[in-house]
Amino acid sequence: MKERVEEVLQKVRPSLQADGGDVELIDVSDDGVVKVQLTGACGSCPFSTMTLKHGIEMRLKEAIPEVKEVVAL
């Protein structure tokens, strides 16, 4: 599943990079929790929670039903 998550993140990255940020995949657990780290401008952005939940998590859940939650470290 980690490879599938990385494929989806590759599709999300260009929008984040356009705003000076990025996302790094840290881990994917067996119970469907994806751990990421928002970097660059995304790491300190006040809207990072919205980006995480309504952008990254939503896209991952649509593409990979096994994903239960995305958390930022």
TrEMBL record:
InterPro entries: FSCA_dom_sf (IPR034904), NIF_FeS_clus_asmbl_NifU_C (IPR001075). It comes from the Bacteria. SUPFAM superfamilies: Fe-S cluster assembly (FSCA) domain-like. Pfam families: NifU. Gene3D superfamilies: Fe-S cluster assembly (FSCA). Residues 5-71 form the NIF system FeS cluster assembly NifU C-terminal domain. GO terms for biological process: iron-sulfur cluster assembly. GO terms for molecular function: iron ion binding; iron-sulfur cluster binding; structural molecule activity. Belongs to the NifU family. This is NifU family protein.
